[in-house]
Specification:
Layout (H helix, E strand, L loop, with lengths): L1 E3 L5 H10 L4 E6 L4 E6 L2 E7 L2 E2 L1 H6 L8 E6 L10 H22 L4 E4 L11 E2 H8 L3 H13 L4 E6 L15 H5 L6 H6 L4 H14 L6 H14 L10
Antiparallel strand pairs: 1-6, 2-3, 2-6, 3-4, 4-5, 7-8, 7-9
Helix pairs in contact: 3-5, 4-5, 8-9
């Protein structure tokens, strides 16, 4: 089974999978590509590229505005995350709340600092790192962080978790930016050389959509999409 979201919404496709007791994987091809695995009609796994689990599923957009889907039968096993109706209700609510959180902190990659547990370090800490170290759901920590930013208890440092990546450009496109991306410098160091965060973000997001993969590419892609949606119109062009 396959189709377009312009013809049928994702929740309708998920409901068909559940009601017909399907066992297999639904692949969503959209701005944020993700998968949902079913076992006998119940959701047992899923995520964005190599980022899988409940945090990743909850970060996947339940209402993609465009794109397509395809379903294939596979031998899927695993524990049911939660009853289908409960899971989809929670997913819809969290999808809406992620959008609100994003208007405050941009994405979970944002590095915040302030006199709060998990963030009270000299250089700050990303929301993702704080959630990982605390062993708490990413959404929960992001919501707390957004509230703290609104209350003036945390502030953004202007840096993001993905600044630590080292990317070696491969391909025929050449520019000052691609020449700087030789794998020796982190993306943060490249930005410190004078390239704008928007330019580097646009380059990395484009490469991920073209097939670039590395450990952590799933959460990086998700966060870049969130951040891009919060940006003001840019004149930067990484192709120049």
């Amino acid at each position: 089974m396959q189709g377009l979201f312009s013809d049928v919404p994702l929740i309708g496709v998920l409901s068909i999978m559940h009601e017909t007791g399907q066992t297999g994987v639904l692949e969503v091809d959209a701005d944020v590509p993700f998968s949902v695995a079913f076992a006998k009609g119940e959701i047992v796994e899923g995520g964005i590229l190599d980022w899988t689990g409940l945090d990743a599923l909850h970060a996947s957009p339940m209402l993609p505005g465009s794109g397509s889907f395809s379903y294939s039968r596979r031998n899927v096993t695993g524990a049911v995350i939660s009853p289908f109706e409960q899971f989809t209700t929670d997913w819809a609510r969290i999808t809406d709340e992620w959008e609100q959180i994003g208007t405050v902190i941009s994405s979970p990659s944002v590095v915040l600092s302030g006199a709060m547990p998990l963030f009270d370090q000299e250089k700050g800490r990303s929301v993702r790192a704080a959630a990982r170290d605390a062993g708490l759901p990413l959404f929960e920590v992001a919501a707390r962080a957004a509230d703290a930013v609104n209350a003036g208890k945390l502030k953004a440092t202007g840096r993001y978790a993905w600044y630590g990546l080292k990317i070696a450009h491969r391909g025929q496109r050449t520019s000052d930016l691609t020449r700087a991306l030789d794998g020796g410098l982190s993306l943060g160091e490249v930005i410190d050389q004078g390239f704008s965060p928007a330019m580097v973000r646009a380059y990395l997001l484009s490469e991920l959509h073209l097939g670039l993969r590395f450990a952590g590419s799933g959460w990086v892609l998700r966060d870049l999409v969130w951040e891009t949606r919060q940006e003001l119109p840019q004149t930067d062009d990484f192709m120049l």
